[in-house]
Amino acid sequence: MKKILSFFVLGVIMISMPVTADSGRKSTGDYSYLPDPVAEIGSKKISRKQALTYLTSRLSQEQLKAMDPEEIKLVLSELMEREINRSIMNAILKKSNVTPSPILVKRQMIKLIKSLPAHRRKALVQNLKSKKLTLKQYIENASKDTDEQLRAAINLWVRKTNPQAIKGKKGEAEDYYRLRQELFLIPDHVTISQIVVDKSDSTNAAKAADKIKTAYSRLIQGEPFAKTAKEFSDNPSGKSKGLISGTFTRNELPKKIADIAFLQKSGQFSKIIILQKSYVIVKTENVTHARYVPFEEVKRFIKMELQSAKTKVFVGKILRQKRRTLKIKLYFK
């Protein structure tokens, strides 16, 4: 088996380092500081030319020109180490009839996302929304990544062939929760609406001051905040929605706004707040105080995290064992 594995890995590595460079990616730099050969894997030698072809197939000429010799050596070393590890794991997976594929990534990502506590899922969706992505698109994009496909296949292989390596111990998840409780703290957060009037242009400073004063006057006379925001706010979100500006933790807001927003009662709005570039009136919609996520809500997520950590340890051990049989020598470190 060791010989079969070694020959397979050598074949994959030599294929990934062709002698002929890709068109449009020929190196023009002087790389004489790299030894020739740059490495030996078993009885096979990898020449400087092959290594440079491998390097230039992954980095642009602009990137290479910006790097000094030591940086290039470091990057080449990391790329080769990574390719060797990938080749070893691909050989193992092939023998076990486990094939990296998009469907494996999708299944594992859906399972992981379902295990997330509600606030983490909500934060993920909001973050994706800011990047104009849906959860479905995010999973679809990830499933096309060959690194993710390999990772998902390795996870499946470990579960199928070595379940004891990742088996959880009694009370392990709860111990993890108790010892790392700060990871499961949901901080204070406030949902606010804002009227923002820009005063960064000094030529319009007087107009900006009059504008925010008029808006405040309307509010204290009882005009709905949403209506006033739509008419007076320079904040695009205020104009388009006129309602909720967002939910924030204390550290995500300017201190002047945070100090007021967290003190106000729900439905209460502030006096005019003067910031460096704007005038602001902030309305507190809702304040949620800090709390720890209950263990039962994160139990499944913690178990998956522990399994992932154990998988990394187990795979690392396998890689070290297999690499010893390959007799790998890198001469440019």
Description:
The protein has 333 residues and is an alpha+beta fold. It has 3 domains: 107 residues, no CATH class; 108 residues, no CATH class; 102 residues, Chitinase A, domain 3. The strands form 3 sheets. A 4-stranded antiparallel sheet has the order 5-4-7-6, with helices on both faces. The radius of gyration is 29 Å and the shape is elongated. 23% of the residues are buried.
Question: Short description, anyone?
Answer:
The protein has 333 residues and is α+β, with helices and mostly antiparallel strands. It contains 14 helices and nine strands. Mean pLDDT is 86; it is low at 1-28.
What are the defining features of this structure?
3 domains; 14 helices; alpha+beta; Chitinase A, domain 3; four-stranded antiparallel sheet
What is the element layout, followed by pairings?
Blueprint: H1 2-16, E1 39-41, E2 44-46, H2 48-56, H3 61-65, H4 69-95, H5 102-115, H6 118-130, H7 135-143, H8 146-161, H9 172-179, E3 185-186, E4 189-198, H10 205-220, H11 225-232, H12 236-240, E5 246-249, H13 255-261, E6 273-274, E7 278-288, E8 291-292, H14 295-326, E9 328-330
Antiparallel strand pairs: 1-2, 1-9, 3-8, 4-5, 4-7, 6-7
Instruction: Give me the Rg, rounded.
Output: 29 Å
Q: Based on DSSP secondary structure assignment, what is the total number of beta strands?
A: 9
What is the CA-CA span between the terminal residues? 30 Å
User: Number of helical segments?
Assistant: 14
Largest sheet: 4 strands, antiparallel
Low-confidence segments, given as residue ranges, are: 1-28
So what's the overall shape? elongated
User: How much beta, percentage-wise?
Assistant: 5-15%
The number of domains is 3
H/E element sequence:
HEEHHHHHHHHEEHHHEHEEEHE
Measured as a percent range, the helix fraction is: 55-70%
Question: Which structural category do the helix and sheet elements fall into?
Answer: alpha+beta
Strand order in the largest sheet: 5-4-7-6
Average pLDDT, to the nearest integer? 86
